[in-house]
Amino acid sequence: MYDVIIVGSGPAGISASLYLKRANNNILVIGNDNSRLCLAHKIENYYGFPDGISGKELYNNGIEQARNLGIEVLFEEVLGVKYEDKFVVKTTNNEYNSKYVIIATGSSNNKPNIKNLANFEGKGISYCAICDGFFFRNKAISLVGNSNYVISECSDLINLSDNINIFTNGEETSKEVLDYVKEHPNIRVFNEKIVEVTGDDHLEGIVLENGDNIPTDGLFIANGIASTSNLAIKLGIILNNNFIKVDSNYETNVKGCFAIGDSIGGLLQISKSVSDGACCATYINKLLKEKE
Protein backbone atom coordinates (compact mmCIF):
# COMPACT_ATOMS: atom_id res chain seq x y z
CA MET A 1 0.00 0.00 0.00
CA TYR A 2 1.47 3.31 -1.10
CA ASP A 3 0.71 6.59 0.63
CA VAL A 4 0.25 8.31 -2.72
CA ILE A 5 0.19 7.12 -6.33
CA ILE A 6 0.80 9.81 -8.92
CA VAL A 7 -0.53 9.06 -12.40
CA GLY A 8 1.66 11.06 -14.75
CA SER A 9 5.40 11.59 -14.90
CA GLY A 10 5.61 15.12 -16.31
CA PRO A 11 6.56 18.31 -14.44
CA ALA A 12 3.42 18.37 -12.27
CA GLY A 13 3.62 14.74 -11.20
CA ILE A 14 7.37 14.73 -10.58
CA SER A 15 7.19 18.02 -8.66
CA ALA A 16 4.53 16.53 -6.38
CA SER A 17 6.55 13.36 -5.89
CA LEU A 18 9.64 15.30 -4.74
CA TYR A 19 7.72 17.17 -2.04
CA LEU A 20 5.92 14.03 -0.90
CA LYS A 21 9.06 11.91 -0.76
CA ARG A 22 11.00 14.54 1.19
CA ALA A 23 8.29 14.28 3.83
CA ASN A 24 9.18 10.56 4.08
CA ASN A 25 6.09 9.19 2.37
CA ASN A 26 5.88 6.02 0.26
CA ILE A 27 5.34 7.24 -3.31
CA LEU A 28 4.75 5.61 -6.69
CA VAL A 29 4.81 7.52 -9.97
CA ILE A 30 3.31 5.82 -13.01
CA GLY A 31 3.96 7.36 -16.43
CA ASN A 32 3.79 6.17 -20.03
CA ASP A 33 7.09 7.68 -21.21
CA ASN A 34 5.16 9.61 -23.84
CA SER A 35 4.90 13.09 -22.32
CA ARG A 36 3.99 15.96 -24.64
CA LEU A 37 6.86 17.81 -22.99
CA CYS A 38 9.26 15.59 -24.97
CA LEU A 39 7.93 17.07 -28.21
CA ALA A 40 9.15 20.57 -27.31
CA HIS A 41 12.28 21.31 -29.35
CA LYS A 42 13.51 24.08 -27.05
CA ILE A 43 12.09 25.71 -23.93
CA GLU A 44 13.33 29.24 -23.27
CA ASN A 45 10.77 30.62 -20.79
CA TYR A 46 11.45 28.36 -17.80
CA TYR A 47 13.48 29.61 -14.87
CA GLY A 48 17.13 28.59 -14.56
CA PHE A 49 18.03 27.75 -18.17
CA PRO A 50 19.55 30.85 -19.78
CA ASP A 51 20.38 28.98 -22.99
CA GLY A 52 17.10 27.06 -23.05
CA ILE A 53 16.62 23.30 -22.75
CA SER A 54 14.85 20.69 -24.87
CA GLY A 55 11.60 19.26 -23.55
CA LYS A 56 12.98 15.73 -23.65
CA GLU A 57 16.05 16.68 -21.61
CA LEU A 58 13.96 18.51 -19.02
CA TYR A 59 11.61 15.53 -18.78
CA ASN A 60 14.46 13.04 -18.37
CA ASN A 61 16.11 15.28 -15.78
CA GLY A 62 12.92 15.20 -13.74
CA ILE A 63 12.74 11.39 -13.84
CA GLU A 64 16.40 11.12 -12.84
CA GLN A 65 15.92 13.58 -9.98
CA ALA A 66 12.98 11.58 -8.63
CA ARG A 67 14.79 8.26 -8.85
CA ASN A 68 17.91 9.71 -7.22
CA LEU A 69 15.69 10.58 -4.27
CA GLY A 70 14.48 6.98 -4.09
CA ILE A 71 11.10 7.51 -5.71
CA GLU A 72 9.73 4.52 -7.59
CA VAL A 73 8.91 5.51 -11.19
CA LEU A 74 7.27 2.96 -13.46
CA PHE A 75 6.39 3.26 -17.14
CA GLU A 76 3.14 1.36 -17.57
CA GLU A 77 -0.11 2.15 -19.36
CA VAL A 78 -2.80 3.09 -16.85
CA LEU A 79 -6.18 1.63 -17.78
CA GLY A 80 -8.26 3.01 -14.94
CA VAL A 81 -8.54 4.11 -11.31
CA LYS A 82 -11.21 2.95 -8.86
CA TYR A 83 -11.94 3.29 -5.17
CA GLU A 84 -12.62 0.28 -2.92
CA ASP A 85 -11.85 1.51 0.64
CA LYS A 86 -8.56 2.46 -1.00
CA PHE A 87 -7.54 3.66 -4.43
CA VAL A 88 -6.72 0.96 -6.96
CA VAL A 89 -4.75 1.96 -10.05
CA LYS A 90 -4.96 -0.66 -12.77
CA THR A 91 -2.27 -0.86 -15.45
CA THR A 92 -1.56 -3.31 -18.25
CA ASN A 93 0.88 -5.05 -15.91
CA ASN A 94 -0.54 -4.88 -12.40
CA GLU A 95 -2.79 -3.23 -9.84
CA TYR A 96 -1.43 -0.80 -7.23
CA ASN A 97 -3.12 0.40 -4.03
CA SER A 98 -2.81 3.74 -2.26
CA LYS A 99 -4.37 6.05 0.32
CA TYR A 100 -4.37 9.01 -2.06
CA VAL A 101 -4.15 9.49 -5.82
CA ILE A 102 -2.95 12.45 -7.85
CA ILE A 103 -3.95 12.68 -11.52
CA ALA A 104 -1.26 14.51 -13.46
CA THR A 105 -1.86 13.14 -16.94
CA GLY A 106 -2.01 16.42 -18.84
CA SER A 107 -4.87 17.66 -20.98
CA SER A 108 -7.22 15.24 -22.74
CA ASN A 109 -6.38 14.71 -26.39
CA ASN A 110 -7.64 11.27 -27.40
CA LYS A 111 -11.04 12.21 -28.84
CA PRO A 112 -11.08 11.10 -32.50
CA ASN A 113 -12.03 13.55 -35.21
CA ILE A 114 -15.40 12.08 -36.25
CA LYS A 115 -18.20 14.19 -37.71
CA ASN A 116 -21.26 14.59 -35.41
CA LEU A 117 -19.47 12.90 -32.49
CA ALA A 118 -20.31 15.66 -30.02
CA ASN A 119 -23.97 15.66 -31.12
CA PHE A 120 -24.48 12.14 -29.77
CA GLU A 121 -22.50 12.35 -26.53
CA GLY A 122 -24.87 10.97 -23.91
CA LYS A 123 -27.11 9.72 -26.71
CA GLY A 124 -25.12 6.67 -27.70
CA ILE A 125 -21.58 8.01 -27.50
CA SER A 126 -19.81 7.08 -24.26
CA TYR A 127 -16.34 7.44 -22.77
CA CYS A 128 -16.70 4.87 -19.99
CA ALA A 129 -17.67 1.23 -20.54
CA ILE A 130 -18.02 0.38 -16.87
CA CYS A 131 -20.24 3.44 -16.35
CA ASP A 132 -22.60 3.10 -19.31
CA GLY A 133 -22.28 -0.46 -20.56
CA PHE A 134 -25.42 -1.66 -18.76
CA PHE A 135 -27.57 0.67 -20.87
CA PHE A 136 -26.54 -1.24 -24.01
CA ARG A 137 -27.09 -4.81 -22.86
CA ASN A 138 -28.31 -7.05 -25.69
CA LYS A 139 -27.78 -4.20 -28.17
CA ALA A 140 -25.26 -3.47 -30.90
CA ILE A 141 -22.11 -2.15 -29.25
CA SER A 142 -19.13 -0.57 -30.98
CA LEU A 143 -15.76 0.66 -29.77
CA VAL A 144 -13.14 2.82 -31.45
CA GLY A 145 -9.51 2.16 -30.55
CA ASN A 146 -6.57 -0.07 -31.34
CA SER A 147 -4.59 -0.58 -28.13
CA ASN A 148 -4.70 -2.13 -24.68
CA TYR A 149 -7.19 0.51 -23.61
CA VAL A 150 -9.86 -0.56 -26.11
CA ILE A 151 -9.35 -4.17 -24.96
CA SER A 152 -9.85 -3.14 -21.34
CA GLU A 153 -13.07 -1.31 -22.23
CA CYS A 154 -14.27 -4.21 -24.36
CA SER A 155 -13.72 -6.60 -21.46
CA ASP A 156 -16.29 -4.63 -19.47
CA LEU A 157 -18.80 -5.03 -22.31
CA ILE A 158 -18.19 -8.56 -23.57
CA ASN A 159 -20.82 -10.17 -21.34
CA LEU A 160 -23.50 -7.63 -22.20
CA SER A 161 -23.94 -8.33 -25.91
CA ASP A 162 -23.21 -10.81 -28.68
CA ASN A 163 -22.98 -7.97 -31.19
CA ILE A 164 -19.71 -6.11 -30.60
CA ASN A 165 -17.52 -4.32 -33.17
CA ILE A 166 -14.10 -2.72 -32.79
CA PHE A 167 -13.13 0.07 -35.18
CA THR A 168 -9.41 0.81 -35.50
CA ASN A 169 -10.30 3.99 -37.42
CA GLY A 170 -7.89 3.66 -40.33
CA GLU A 171 -5.09 1.84 -38.51
CA GLU A 172 -3.86 -1.67 -39.16
CA THR A 173 -5.11 -3.93 -36.40
CA SER A 174 -2.62 -4.06 -33.54
CA LYS A 175 -1.22 -7.34 -32.24
CA GLU A 176 -2.98 -6.77 -28.92
CA VAL A 177 -6.39 -6.44 -30.58
CA LEU A 178 -5.72 -9.39 -32.91
CA ASP A 179 -4.85 -11.62 -29.96
CA TYR A 180 -7.94 -10.49 -28.08
CA VAL A 181 -10.26 -11.15 -31.02
CA LYS A 182 -8.83 -14.66 -31.40
CA GLU A 183 -10.10 -15.35 -27.88
CA HIS A 184 -13.46 -13.73 -28.68
CA PRO A 185 -14.26 -14.67 -32.31
CA ASN A 186 -17.73 -13.09 -32.13
CA ILE A 187 -16.12 -9.63 -32.16
CA ARG A 188 -15.74 -8.06 -35.60
CA VAL A 189 -12.91 -5.65 -36.42
CA PHE A 190 -13.19 -2.86 -39.00
CA ASN A 191 -10.03 -1.09 -40.18
CA GLU A 192 -11.67 1.56 -42.36
CA LYS A 193 -11.61 5.14 -41.14
CA ILE A 194 -14.83 6.42 -39.54
CA VAL A 195 -16.21 9.41 -41.44
CA GLU A 196 -19.22 10.25 -39.27
CA VAL A 197 -21.84 8.93 -36.87
CA THR A 198 -25.53 9.25 -37.70
CA GLY A 199 -28.94 9.06 -36.11
CA ASP A 200 -31.98 11.09 -35.09
CA ASP A 201 -32.49 11.45 -31.35
CA HIS A 202 -29.92 8.74 -30.61
CA LEU A 203 -26.94 7.16 -32.32
CA GLU A 204 -27.96 4.72 -35.03
CA GLY A 205 -25.01 4.15 -37.34
CA ILE A 206 -21.31 4.52 -38.11
CA VAL A 207 -20.37 5.61 -41.63
CA LEU A 208 -17.02 4.37 -42.91
CA GLU A 209 -14.75 5.89 -45.52
CA ASN A 210 -15.71 3.17 -48.01
CA GLY A 211 -19.36 4.20 -47.70
CA ASP A 212 -20.54 1.34 -45.48
CA ASN A 213 -22.99 2.23 -42.72
CA ILE A 214 -22.66 -0.08 -39.73
CA PRO A 215 -25.74 -0.04 -37.45
CA THR A 216 -24.96 0.48 -33.78
CA ASP A 217 -26.69 1.55 -30.58
CA GLY A 218 -23.60 2.61 -28.67
CA LEU A 219 -20.08 3.73 -29.52
CA PHE A 220 -17.46 3.69 -26.77
CA ILE A 221 -14.44 5.94 -27.32
CA ALA A 222 -11.26 4.12 -26.30
CA ASN A 223 -8.82 5.79 -28.64
CA GLY A 224 -5.13 5.64 -27.75
CA ILE A 225 -4.49 5.46 -24.01
CA ALA A 226 -6.83 6.42 -21.18
CA SER A 227 -6.92 10.21 -21.04
CA THR A 228 -7.50 12.59 -18.17
CA SER A 229 -11.23 12.68 -18.83
CA ASN A 230 -11.44 8.88 -19.18
CA LEU A 231 -9.82 8.36 -15.77
CA ALA A 232 -11.99 11.06 -14.22
CA ILE A 233 -15.27 9.72 -15.58
CA LYS A 234 -14.57 6.23 -14.24
CA LEU A 235 -14.10 7.67 -10.74
CA GLY A 236 -17.11 9.97 -10.91
CA ILE A 237 -14.99 13.12 -10.95
CA ILE A 238 -16.65 16.32 -12.11
CA LEU A 239 -15.26 17.79 -15.33
CA ASN A 240 -15.45 21.29 -16.75
CA ASN A 241 -14.80 21.44 -20.52
CA ASN A 242 -12.76 18.22 -20.32
CA PHE A 243 -10.62 19.61 -17.50
CA ILE A 244 -10.87 18.20 -13.97
CA LYS A 245 -12.57 20.47 -11.49
CA VAL A 246 -10.66 20.89 -8.22
CA ASP A 247 -10.90 23.02 -5.07
CA SER A 248 -8.24 25.36 -3.67
CA ASN A 249 -6.29 22.34 -2.37
CA TYR A 250 -6.39 20.58 -5.77
CA GLU A 251 -8.83 17.97 -4.43
CA THR A 252 -11.59 16.72 -6.72
CA ASN A 253 -15.15 15.96 -5.63
CA VAL A 254 -13.90 12.42 -4.90
CA LYS A 255 -12.31 12.66 -1.47
CA GLY A 256 -8.65 11.67 -1.52
CA CYS A 257 -8.27 12.11 -5.28
CA PHE A 258 -6.36 15.17 -6.46
CA ALA A 259 -5.51 16.61 -9.87
CA ILE A 260 -2.78 19.01 -10.97
CA GLY A 261 -1.08 20.50 -14.01
CA ASP A 262 -2.61 20.65 -17.47
CA SER A 263 -5.32 18.17 -16.40
CA ILE A 264 -7.07 20.98 -14.50
CA GLY A 265 -6.66 23.66 -17.16
CA GLY A 266 -5.58 27.24 -16.56
CA LEU A 267 -2.16 28.37 -17.76
CA LEU A 268 -0.79 25.37 -19.66
CA GLN A 269 2.83 26.05 -18.81
CA ILE A 270 5.60 24.11 -17.06
CA SER A 271 5.97 26.73 -14.32
CA LYS A 272 2.31 26.43 -13.37
CA SER A 273 2.45 22.61 -13.41
CA VAL A 274 5.47 22.56 -11.10
CA SER A 275 3.70 24.96 -8.72
CA ASP A 276 0.54 22.82 -8.73
CA GLY A 277 2.60 19.77 -7.80
CA ALA A 278 4.34 21.52 -4.92
CA CYS A 279 1.14 23.02 -3.49
CA CYS A 280 -0.89 19.82 -3.81
CA ALA A 281 1.86 17.70 -2.24
CA THR A 282 2.22 20.11 0.68
CA TYR A 283 -1.49 19.73 1.45
CA ILE A 284 -1.39 15.92 1.19
CA ASN A 285 1.67 15.87 3.47
CA LYS A 286 -0.47 17.66 6.04
CA LEU A 287 -3.28 15.11 5.68
CA LEU A 288 -0.90 12.17 6.04
CA LYS A 289 0.72 13.70 9.12
CA GLU A 290 -2.70 14.21 10.74
CA LYS A 291 -3.43 10.49 10.25
CA GLU A 292 -0.28 9.34 12.07
Short description:
This protein is of the alpha/beta class. Helix content is 26%, strand content 25%.
Describe the structure.
This protein has about 290 residues and is α/β, with parallel strands linked by helices. About 25% of the residues lie in helices and about 25% in strands. The chain contains seven helices and 17 strands. The strands form four sheets. Strands 1, 2, 3, 4, 5, 6 and 17 form a seven-stranded mixed β-sheet that branches. It has a five-stranded parallel β-sheet with strand order 7-14-8-9-10, covered by helices on one side. Strands 11-12-13 form a three-stranded antiparallel β-sheet, with no helix packed on it. Strand 11 (about 195-200) and strand 12 form a beta hairpin. The longest helix has 22 residues, at about 270-290. The chain is globular, with a radius of gyration of 20 Å. The protein starts with a strand and ends with a helix. About 40% of the residues are buried.
